[in-house]
Amino acid sequence: MPTYLTQQKHANCGPVAIVNAYRWLGYPITRDFLNITERICDCGKGGTHQNDMKRGMDFLKLLYGMRKNAFSLCMSNPTINDLNQELAAGNAVLLSCYWFTAGDGEPWGHYVLLVGSTKHYYEVVNGNGTHKHPRKMSKEVIKRCLKENTPKPFWWVVRDGCRCKD
What we know:
By secondary structure, the protein is of the alpha+beta class. It has a single domain, classed as Cysteine proteinases (Cathepsin B, Chain A, Alpha-Beta Complex). The protein has helices at about 15-25, 30-40, 50-65, 80-90, 140-150; strands at about 70-75, 90-100, 105-115, 120-125, 135-140, 155-160. The protein has a six-stranded antiparallel sheet, with helices on both faces. Helix 1 (about 15-25) crosses helix 2 (about 30-40) and helix 1 (about 15-25) runs parallel beside helix 3. It is globular, with a radius of gyration of 15 Å.
């Protein structure tokens, strides 16, 4: 099981989720790559937007000379069944969800990387806090995030078939 890089800044969960997806795939990503990915994703005070996430994903794809794209953007509004199906197939899921609001009432998003599943929990990287190993997060919490979001959540499937060959 890989160890993961932790989120140490307020608004860099997007780049952290991207580099951790590559770590999940077996690529030797370091914090230096995270720092570059943060700049490419342009994650300032407002966090990382969907188009900026794509730039970060593409940068690492080029860096490692990958022919296939490890990330497949899926339609918005995933269901618990969608997530469970991809995880059961051996893939990981990078999910954008909005589970809390800022002081001004605006929904504040967060990117999490789902790397496994049990009957009641997801194994989540970057879910809450700064942990180097996946933490359990209730499927009910994720289900509420998917159901109650004002901006619709979007998600990428991280394909197991794109694992590092080393």
